[in-house]
Specification:
The chain is an alpha+beta fold. The chain has one domain (2-99). The chain has helices at 21-32, 89-99; strands at 2-6, 13-16, 36-40, 46-51, 61-65, 68-71, 74-80, 83-85. The strands form two sheets. Strands 1, 2, 3, 4, 7 and 8 form a six-stranded antiparallel β-sheet that branches. The chain has a two-stranded antiparallel ribbon with strand order 5-6. A hairpin with a 6-residue loop joins strand 1 (2-6) and strand 2 (13-16). The chain is globular. The two termini are 24 Å apart.
């Protein structure tokens, strides 16, 4: 499954995680380094997944979403009817440009 990953200090890039629900959750947790917090974006079919304790754990700020700094590595995922699906190239382009994910 294709997701967009933004690691601290690096440009965002598309990565592949495993399809099965249990394994994909493990893969996302491994990327963000902890328990998941989902941030619903005002972009249909897109969500941000970050470390729910990133700020408390002292992780460095990565990006700012709606004026709120998000600490640690994050994933952007595409959803259809609540299921995570492959993120499209168009969605990646929109996210990168809207949130400045090039740095």
């Amino acid at each position: 499954m294709r997701i967009l990953v933004k690691r601290v200090g690096e440009p965002a890039k598309v990565e592949t995680i495993r399809e099965a629900i249990k394994e994909s959750v493990e893969d996302v947790r491994s990327i963000i380094g902890g328990n998941m917090e989902v941030v619903v974006l005002d972009m249909p079919g897109l969500m941000l997944i970050c470390n729910e304790n990133g700020k408390l754990d002292g992780l460095p700020n990565n990006i700012t979403i709606y004026g709120e700094p998000i600490a640690g590595d994050v994933c952007f995922v595409s959803t259809v009817c609540g299921d995570i699906v492959d993120i499209t190239d168009e969605q990646v382009f929109e996210l990168v440009n809207r949130f400045g994910l090039k740095k």
